[in-house]
Amino acid sequence: MKVLKFGGTSVGSVSSITTLLQIVKNEVEEGERPVVVLSAMSGVTNLLINMAEQAAKGNEFTAQLAELERRHFDVVKSLLDIQNQNPAFTRLKIHFNQLEELLQGVLTLRELTAKTRDLIVSFGERCSTLMISKIAAQHFGNAFFVDASEVLKTDSAFGNARVDTALSELLIRDLYASNTDKVLFITGFIASNEAGQITTLGRGGSDYTAAIFGAALNAQEIQIWTDVNGMMTADPRMVKKAFPLSELTYTEAMELSYFGAKVIYPPTMIPAFLKKIPIVIKNTFEPEFAGTVIQHQSKASNQPIKGISSINNISILNLMGSGMVGKSGFSGRLFSLLAREQINVILITQSSSEHSITFAIQPGDAKRAKAIIEQEFELEILANKLEPITVEENLAILAVVGENMKQTPGVSGKLFHALGRNGVNVRAIAQGSSEYNISVIISEHDLAKALNAVHDAFFVDLYKTLHAFCLGTGNIGKTLFSQLNAHADFLRNENGIQVKVVGISNTRKMTFDADGIELNNWQASLDESNDKADLRLFIDTMKSMNLPNCVFIDNTASPVPVEFYEEVLNSAISVVTCNKIGNSGSYSRYKAFKDAARTHGVDFFYETNVGAGLPIIRTLRDLMNSGDRVQRIEAILSGTISFIFNQFKGDANFHDVVKLAQEKGYTEPDPRDDLRGTDFMRKILILARDAGHTLEAADVQIESILPTACLDAATVDDFYAALKAEDAYFTNLKQQAESGGKVLRYIGKLEDGKASITLQMVDENHPFYMLSGSDNIISFTTDRYKERPLVVKGPGAGAEVTAAGVFADLVNVGAN
Ligand code: ADP
Ligand code: ASP
Ligand code: MG
């Protein structure tokens, strides 16, 4: 036979009750005689507790009571035939009247004892089970209501009573044996003490009722029917990517549920474990799904962990002092004291020097725990052998669980790496000696981020999610969005990466969506947003959203965002930027970015600062990292100037060529911003710094292409006029070059720590002679590439290639 337990949501509505009955009916039709254990309708236990507490404070409860009645009566009306409704109404009404009397008593006395509270709460299971057994009787005649308090015997620890297993098993077997022709519908959660007073088994305890019945009756299986597809790798409400596990051992299920996986009540595993009865967790709302089997052994798996669980809202107490060192019995005294006072200790860690003990408890117990410890260890505190006890609040426990951890080195490394990269501070660590679990205590505020980051780190078969906050919706920003959109499937399938753009801002508006902004519709999201652009607020929102694997992307050319880089990196958020202003500012700032990234274990990527998408920064970094030394760098890193000199030949005049370049969109609005060499200078400066030189912008010597008259012109129009006027100057340069079989090239150079940009005439033997369109070229002469330099060449400007470079940086975030 099997035990089938249905939880709150499974008995919470007309449609779920209909499904439930179908599931039971299928069993019956297969000739089985299952035992059915039921919870209260969803939310009812909380409602009852709330009413009782309100009554004890002198507050009214009638409205809630009416609501409770209505929920049950609605089900009766929908699912029972007319002629069967009245008896059901009568039985239920008797219960509600009793309940009302009890609550009235609490209200009158303004007192709510644990005993009364259990009695009040028991009406949840009694009403639901009574009602469903009546409906079931209509479906398959022999359904029989059982109040479990008649057979489940416990001690008198109201609220969390301990079961007298031997006695209860006897009574259960008796009950089953004397009702051979019936299908029993049993109240979960409730029991009674020796005196016959109602007790309860702890919140979520209906699962436990099922296990006790299963063990007593040697069931072949205990089924826990709930509202998810089994035990999942993490709490699905916190981790969207959590997925159901097909198998777990009792120990793993116990560890996961003990540390917060609410789907099954931890003590449930014990009776099942002792009798080796498999527990199967199934979904009432998707009955065909196989669910999770919990049994003695599970099939070999290559995952180092099975799941991640968490407990929110805990407090920790710290005890510190020399009085503990080498004192045998100190922790014995401490923990017996807590046990005596019924303070449940969730987790303990002790430093190896024995200088300190930290333990986690429910916040409600913290004050009392502190007081009794101070009382117990008064002498030690007076003698300064124990420091004043400190309490820390608003913490959470995150635990990774799995039996494979034992054989797999590096599990804790992976855990701490994921936490560290996301700026999650670990307050305390505990590893069970069983090595089935590693638990860390972190701030509650970081829990969701930590859970998702750790989930991404361990379940690599899934894809990893990067959360991107993007500044700038100009050409590059726009193109990046369309590239991300077009390649989303490929990225996910081939690289295991999902990029969610969760924040966008331009200079006018900003918008956020933690679930990801639709990239084929980002413009509308931004237009429709009510949030005016505010960079300070943008950064604050990004921080407070506290998402895992965050990347801040600067696709602007503005100095304003740069002011925030350091703060962003210090918040453990990676930065990807095509904006050159940051790295080409003062050296100390450049260094501060690098240091902040290193300190916080995040990435600071700026491949597109030099040569757009060409692999220049990366190549230099690889050379340096592999121990090579750069002797010389020569480069043409201005696509605009390349284009201009490539066009400036034969009959062409300089003025027209510059105009053409502007019309083709190759120049800044004021072409002098390119021709002055400032942009080029920034690139050379960044390269020099990456090559290890502490240069400032002023150290880069720039030979101007333009005569003073052109540089000084007041407006862009004046500038063009000046270009025309200086035609002779340019023509002369051109002729000089052409007559020697040479071409004009504006070349940056780094050698012996000195950087310069000069206008040169090079002949066909020079590697830069052949350069077409707006291409960039760079040659690295290094200790290894001495005879023939390493050359990178290709298009070094344009929205497509720049956005592609930003894209590449983005997907490389966290790769190492
Ligand atoms: P029931 O009322 O059926 O007993 P519970 O609410 O007690 O159901 O437990 C089921 C809920 O547990 C799920 O809806 C899910 O939100 C939550 N949960 C938390 N952690 C996990 C996990 N690791 N796997 C599955 N569910 C989990
Ligand atoms: N109804 C009880 C509770 O909500 C028991 C259970 O659902 O398992 O805690
Ligand atoms: Mg439950």
From TrEMBL:
Cofactor(s) the protein needs: a metal cation
Keyword terms of this UniProt record: Amino-acid biosynthesis, ATP-binding, Kinase, Lysine biosynthesis, Metal-binding, Methionine biosynthesis, Multifunctional enzyme, NAD, NADP, Nucleotide-binding, Oxidoreductase, Sodium, Threonine biosynthesis, Transferase
MF terms in GO: aspartate kinase activity; homoserine dehydrogenase activity
InterPro entries, per the entry: AceGlu_kinase-like_sf, ACT-like_dom_sf, ACT_Aspartokinase, ACT_dom, AK-HD, Asp/Glu/Uridylate_kinase, Asp/hSer_DH_NAD-bd, Asp_kinase
The reaction(s) this protein catalyses: L-aspartate + ATP = 4-phospho-L-aspartate + ADP; L-homoserine + NADP(+) = L-aspartate 4-semialdehyde + NADPH + H(+)
Pathways per UniProt: Amino-acid biosynthesis; L-methionine biosynthesis via de novo pathway; L-homoserine from L-aspartate: step 3/3; Amino-acid biosynthesis; L-threonine biosynthesis; L-threonine from L-aspartate: step 3/5; Amino-acid biosynthesis; L-lysine biosynthesis via DAP pathway; (S)-tetrahydrodipicolinate from L-aspartate: step 1/4; Amino-acid biosynthesis; L-threonine biosynthesis; L-threonine from L-aspartate: step 1/5
A UniProt-annotated Pfam family: Homoserine_dh
Gene3D superfamilies linked to this entry: Acetylglutamate kinase-like (3.40.1160.10), Aspartokinase, catalytic domain (1.20.120.1320), Dihydrodipicolinate Reductase, domain 2 (3.30.360.10), NAD(P)-binding Rossmann-like Domain (3.40.50.720), VC0802-like (3.30.2130.10)
Listed EC numbers: 1.1.1.3, 2.7.2.4
Job of this protein: Bifunctional aspartate kinase and homoserine dehydrogenase that catalyzes the first and the third steps toward the synthesis of lysine, methionine and threonine from aspartate.
Protein name: Bifunctional aspartate kinase/homoserine dehydrogenase I
Species annotation: Mucilaginibacter roseus
Source lineage: Bacteria, Pseudomonadati, Bacteroidota, Sphingobacteriia, Sphingobacteriales
Gene: thrA
